[in-house]
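Action item from last meeting closed. Structure (345 res):
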């Protein structure tokens, strides 16, 4: 029984390693991503194996700066590295009958190190100057990044992009963005959101950085989310978030992963906003992101009102007026430049 369990662990690590190699290849296809998503959802053991492999990736990615190709026996070329890796993992699967702590710990980690080194060897690349992208109220931008990845930046947002040889580093300072990431075997795609980071491998996801929390929603593939290590968080947590799931950074740290309504989350990309039985003050707060002159809806008389429906963002002022009319609200404004206050008539 112990031998069978060990072989199952070998198989899962072999499969996880193969998926890393495929997802980081330059010709990964949409079907590859779908097959990977299916494989990942087979069981929590599959997720655990892939998560541990990525952990090892993060830890050993710097190995290329510590060892030469000759040090690890790769010679001057990695042309046959795939064949060597298959032989390496194949011998694990079929020939290793010793204990997990002994033979597999040594052989497995050696093979894994060779795999990670082989698929992360640097190719000639050019670092790009840091770029800052911003959007005004109601403005959205389509940004094509140097590697072919695409960012859609929503209203009132600030994004900094810094592409280096070893990493594609982005910082969403405020607002919301949708990322469609091209795989790159040399440079991980990492988005800093203040309290932590989001790392993608050929995937697509939405990040909404609010004042009190940040919401990460995955529309394609899987992303790794990790808290930042600091004095307050000496033991940062990390999670894998899959399609149709979301996770949040808030004042308590990293939340649990839970299902999400992607249609509502990314409706802004279609110039619409969807409210599903939401408190009117919260609905107005969301709409304020698109208005040049925000509206104050803090009056307690509005707290019990609920909003549902799909509204256009092409004309946010018209959407506001529709809400005012629907609830028969009274508006007050001391001057054209002063905030507009709402309350029940």
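Sequence:
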């Amino acid at each position: 029984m112990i031998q069978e369990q060990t072989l199952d662990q070998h198989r899962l690590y072999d499969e996880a390693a193969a998926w890393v190699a495929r997802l980081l290849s330059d010709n990964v296809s949409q079907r590859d991503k779908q097959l990977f998503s299916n494989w990942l959802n087979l069981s929590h053991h599959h997720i655990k194996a892939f998560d541990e492999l990525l952990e090892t990736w993060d830890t050993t990615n710097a190995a290329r700066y510590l060892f030469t190709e000759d040090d690890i026996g790769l010679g001057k070329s990695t042309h046959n590295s795939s064949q060597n890796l298959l032989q390496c993992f194949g011998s694990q699967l079929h020939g290793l009958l010793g204990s997990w702590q002994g033979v597999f710990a040594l052989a497995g980690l050696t093979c894994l190190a060779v795999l990670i080194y082989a698929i992360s060897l640097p190719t000639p690349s050019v670092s790009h100057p840091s770029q800052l992208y911003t959007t005004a109220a109601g403005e959205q931008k389509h940004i094509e990044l140097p590697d072919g990845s695409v960012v859609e930046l929503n209203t009132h947002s600030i994004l900094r992009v810094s592409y280096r040889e070893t990493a594609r580093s982005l910082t969403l300072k405020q607002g919301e963005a949708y990322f469609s990431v091209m795989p790159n075997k040399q440079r991980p795609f990492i988005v800093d959101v203040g309290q932590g980071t989001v790392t993608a491998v050929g995937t697509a996801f939405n990040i909404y950085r609010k004042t009190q929390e940040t919401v990460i929603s995955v529309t394609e593939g899987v992303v790794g989310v990790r808290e930042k290590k600091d004095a307050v968080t000496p033991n940062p947590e990390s999670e894998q978030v899959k399609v149709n799931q979301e996770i949040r950074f808030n004042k308590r740290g990293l939340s649990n992963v839970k299902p999400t309504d992607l249609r509502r989350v990314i409706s802004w990309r279609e110039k619409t906003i969807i409210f599903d039985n939401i408190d009117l003050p919260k609905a107005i707060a969301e709409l304020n992101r698109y208005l040049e002159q925000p509206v104050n809806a803090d009056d307690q008389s509005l707290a019990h009102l609920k909003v549902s429906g799909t509204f256009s963002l092409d004309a946010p002022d018209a959407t506001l007026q529709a809400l005012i009319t629907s609830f028969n609200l009274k508006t007050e404004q001391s001057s054209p430049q002063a905030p507009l206050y709402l309350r029940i008539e």
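Note appended to the action item: Residues 2-23 form the longest helix (22 residues).
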